[in-house]
């Protein structure tokens, strides 16, 4: 007999199975910490169903999953079926259930219990409101909940006595007369009880905290600590890096509770508080969709001229807050030794510099330069030049800095012949330009990205997809300063909530690109931040004098600009670290070098250090001169000296 998704899930998956599958630790007695409130000691009983003695949450496995991921019951059931590999008939109607009719006495007892429960909950809530919201001074305006408590508490107390001591006839009469009021009060109490933050609300609260943290971040000392955290977690998003920095800036390696236990044979120490991060929890869903021709993207018709449909599985992106723990919060089996970090004079310096050369998008040369310049990137000659005669650490740091410039700021002066006017748009929150016609891509300068829009069959002028190139149903073209990440299907769907937005202005391509170029201050902050993070990852201690102007640079910047720079720094640092690591391993293998071998300590005569005040003054003057040269329009390529 065919089963629908609800029956298949309820017969095959217990709430305990689902809780353990989704990472909730359940004891042998079936007790677990409730994920629906701040539960420090296990208060939720989990077996076929679940019930929390702390917050009162109760239900079956579908209710549990729906509450956990903020889904509808149908979406929760489909997610469970997908996760547990259940087979069901998506067209099967729910099986009819025959329920024995209740007697009048049973109905009355249920109604009486319900009324007493609702009134009792309301009474204790009124008592709480009276205490929590009482005016602190005679002049203070009374809180509405305090007023309600004063007005209703005595009456509700009388009703509770009625259900305890009066006759059944009086109770029946009161229930019949006040059923609607009890239903309304029950609904109100449920809404207030569920006023605990949902996953979505918790995510909003977390992201608000992230944004506030970003605004406060750009003080020199805080910013360096953030970059140090980012270098250790270079594969994490800006949001999660920021969350780790805000909660435990000394973290070095994080994982979930079960991952520490199962994969590393370590356990979280008693009393440790987890680090909240945002984790993806996508689920797959089957939908009916028009079958499209792979070349023209037009719907395929059957022999009767009807559109052919096909069942397609799509992934619905979802996120929820989760807890992770740093290695310092755990005990147990020692972790495998990580690759030894580079420090001091940079062991295997030649191999490391070769790894930088292979990671750079342009050639690297060494030249004689003025003492106040470590190096530069030339967009006109497409090369990086580094000053000869510097120390190994300074050379590596300067090289990474200029590689960052060559990757991010490789733009020549924009000159476009016969430049036309375009409509200004935002496409997936990226600024861009729109044209109704086709754009000749060969005429576009480097550093811009062009995409075509495809219209629907019912209205070819209404864009529904973004693709690299469109032949049939062409609905326009867009130009962006940043590339889109197209999925393997080769297109992105436009929706009312997210997609194409006309902002109302007009601009030429030259004007648009000039506006998108970052000012010199921002370019230097990004390049120096990437250099600091990459060197920090490899254990190369660089000077900190380059961050003195971070706070002044960030003043007046919009949150969107600050976040965009952090995104750029995060992504570029992560890519560069991965490239350098890969090339360094290859070079060490080619040259027969052991990358983990420790360098022999070098002995050198002790030199008298230069007066620290003079060094600091000279560095400050050099930095000030460079910043002034930027303000007065000096065009010579330069970087902030160390």
Structural features, described:
The protein is of the alpha+beta class. It has 18 helices and 21 strands. Strands 20-18-17-19-16-15-21 form a seven-stranded antiparallel beta sheet. Strands 1-2-3-4 form a four-stranded antiparallel beta sheet. It has a three-stranded antiparallel beta sheet with strand order 5-10-7. A hairpin with a 5-residue loop joins strand 3 and strand 4. Helix 12 crosses helix 17 and helix 15 packs across helix 17. The longest helix is centred in the C-terminal third of the chain and has 33 residues. The C terminus is likely disordered.
Sheet bearing the most strands, described?
7 strands, antiparallel
- Uncertain segments are 95-99, 337-343, 600-642
- Widest sheet: strand order? 20-18-17-19-16-15-21
Q: Report the β-strand fraction as a percent range.
A: 15-25%
Name the average pLDDT.
Answer: 76
The best one-word shape is: globular
Oligomer: single chain
Class of secondary structure makeup: alpha+beta
**C-alpha end-to-end distance:** 76 Å
Question: How many β-strand runs?
Answer: 21
Indicate the radius of gyration in whole angstroms: 32 Å
């Amino acid at each position: 007999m065919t089963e629908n998704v609800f029956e298949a899930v309820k017969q095959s998956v217990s709430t305990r199975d689902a809780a353990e599958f989704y990472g909730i630790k359940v004891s042998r007695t079936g007790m677990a910490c409730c994920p629906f409130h701040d539960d420090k000691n296990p208060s939720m009983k989990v077996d076929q169903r679940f019930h929390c003695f702390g917050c009162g949450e109760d239900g079956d496995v579908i209710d549990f999953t729906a509450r956990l991921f903020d889904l509808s019951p149908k979406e929760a059931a489909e997610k469970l079926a997908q996760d547990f590999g259940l087979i069901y008939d998506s067209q099967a109607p729910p099986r009819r259930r025959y329920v024995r009719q209740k007697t009048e006495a049973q109905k009355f007892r249920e109604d009486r219990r319900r009324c007493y429960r609702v009134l009792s909950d309301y009474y204790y809530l009124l008592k709480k409101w009276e205490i929590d919201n009482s005016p602190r001074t005679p002049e203070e305006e009374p809180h509405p909940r305090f007023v309600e408590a004063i007005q209703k508490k005595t009456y509700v107390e009388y009703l509770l006595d009625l259900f305890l001591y009066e006759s059944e006839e009086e109770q029946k009469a009161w229930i019949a007369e006040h059923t609607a009021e009890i239903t309304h009060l029950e609904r109100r109490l449920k809404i207030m009880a569920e006023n605990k933050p949902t996953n979505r609300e918790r995510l909003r609260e977390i992201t608000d905290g992230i944004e506030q943290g970003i605004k406060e971040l750009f003080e020199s000392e805080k910013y360096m600590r953030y970059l140090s955290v980012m270098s250790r977690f270079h594969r994490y998003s800006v949001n999660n890096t920021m969350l780790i920095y805000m909660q435990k800036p000394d973290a070095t390696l994080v994982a979930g509770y079960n991952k520490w236990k199962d994969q590393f044979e370590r356990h979280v120490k008693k009393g440790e508080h987890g680090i909240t991060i945002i984790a993806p929890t996508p689920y797959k869903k089957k939908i009916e969709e028009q079958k499209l021709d792979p070349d023209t993207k037009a719907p395929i018709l059957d022999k009767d001229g009807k559109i052919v449909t096909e069942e397609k599985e799509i992934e619905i992106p979802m996120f929820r807050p989760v807890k992770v723990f740093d290695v310092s919060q755990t005990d147990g089996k020692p972790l495998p030794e990580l690759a030894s970090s580079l420090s001091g004079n940079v062991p295997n310096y030649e191999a490391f510099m070769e790894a930088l050369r292979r990671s750079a998008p342009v050639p690297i040369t060494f030249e004689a330069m003025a003492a106040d310049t470590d190096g530069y990137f030339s967009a006109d000659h497409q090369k990086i030049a580094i000053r000869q005669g510097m120390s190994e650490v300074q050379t590596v740091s300067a090289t990474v800095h200029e590689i960052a410039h060559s990757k991010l700021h490789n733009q020549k002066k924009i000159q476009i012949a016969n430049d036309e006017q375009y409509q200004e748009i935002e496409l997936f929150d990226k600024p861009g330009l729109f044209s109704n016609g086709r754009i000749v891509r060969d005429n576009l300068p480097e550093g811009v990205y062009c995409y075509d829009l495809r219209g629907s069959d019912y209205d070819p002028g209404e864009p529904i997809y973004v693709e690299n190139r469109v032949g049939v149903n062409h609905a326009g073209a867009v130009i962006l300063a940043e590339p889109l990440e197209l999925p393997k299907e080769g297109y992105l769907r436009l929706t009312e909530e997210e997609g194409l937005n006309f902002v109302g202005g007009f601009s030429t391509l030259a004007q648009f690109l000039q506006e998108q170029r970052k000012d010199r201050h921002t370019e230097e902050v990004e390049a120096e931040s990437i250099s600091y993070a990459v060197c920090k990852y490899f254990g190369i201690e660089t000077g900190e004098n380059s961050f003195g102007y971070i706070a002044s640079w960030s003043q007046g910047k919009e949150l969107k600009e600050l976040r965009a720079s952090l995104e750029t720094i995060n992504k570029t640092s992560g890519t560069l670290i991965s490239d350098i690591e890969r090339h360094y391993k290859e070079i060490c293998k080619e040259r027969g070098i052991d990358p983990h071998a420790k360098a022999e300590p070098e002995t050198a005569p002790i030199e008298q250090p230069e007066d620290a005040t003079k060094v600091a003054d000279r560095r400050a003057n050099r930095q000030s001169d460079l910043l002034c040269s930027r303000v007065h329009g000096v065009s010579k390529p330069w970087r902030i000296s160390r």
